[in-house]
Amino acid sequence: MVSEPAVEHDDIQRALRAVPRREFLPRAQRPFAGQDRPLPIGRGQTSSQPSTVAAMLRLLRVPLGARVLDVGSGSGWSTALLAFLTGPSGHVLGVERDERLAAWGASNVGRTGMTWAQVVRAAPGVLGVPRERGWDRILVSASADALPRALVAQLGYGGRMVIPVRTTLVLVERLPDGRTRATNHGGYRFVPLIED
């Protein structure tokens, strides 16, 4: 009997093979794409190590057709991985604060041909992107000092958010009655999430 986590793990491994990290790195960093460590992508940001990205995606449990927000999309790699998991019936929106990184990430995602995914520059003074009925999934790839209420409020019913809070990976679930539940899932290091 195959357990549910093993099936999810297979989906994530397929995504990692289908969306090579190398295509989302500056030319000088591409030789190191297969190494399981963070790599600089410029503007003080990094491409997270693949094992960390895989752990976050396992917690997120992205279903086909999901509406997903990717906060701190950087090079666009995580946005493209999420788009692979949602499939064409989904929608993935990556937001990035840095204008140059956002433009580069948008170009990288555009080259994948996954038209249901896009990267845009984050609106000044707005954390995330408020959406009617909220997002099914939210992935945050930068560390917050505390759980941001603005992002929790953007999580739809039955939704899941994975976010590093200081050095702990936190899963936030929006329960059917509207309450939220947060659980901790190990220690990691990320660049800081800057809130206006």
Automatic annotation (TrEMBL):
State where the protein is found.
Cytoplasm
GO biological process per UniProt: methylation
Q: What's one GO MF term for it?
A: protein-L-isoaspartate (D-aspartate) O-methyltransferase activity
Q: What is the annotated signal peptide range for this record?
A: none
Q: What is its EC class?
A: transferase
Annotated region Disordered: the residues are 27-49
A GO cellular component term found in this entry reads: cytoplasm
Show the SUPFAM superfamilies listed in the entry: S-adenosyl-L-methionine-dependent methyltransferases
User: A single Pfam family, by name?
Assistant: PCMT
Q: What is its EC number?
A: 2.1.1.77
- Chief site of localization: cytoplasm
Annotated keywords: Cytoplasm, Methyltransferase, S-adenosyl-L-methionine, Transferase
Q: Which family does it belong to?
A: Belongs to the methyltransferase superfamily. L-isoaspartyl/D-aspartyl protein methyltransferase family.
Q: What protein am I looking at?
A: Protein-L-isoaspartate O-methyltransferase
Q: Which organism is it from?
A: Promicromonospora citrea
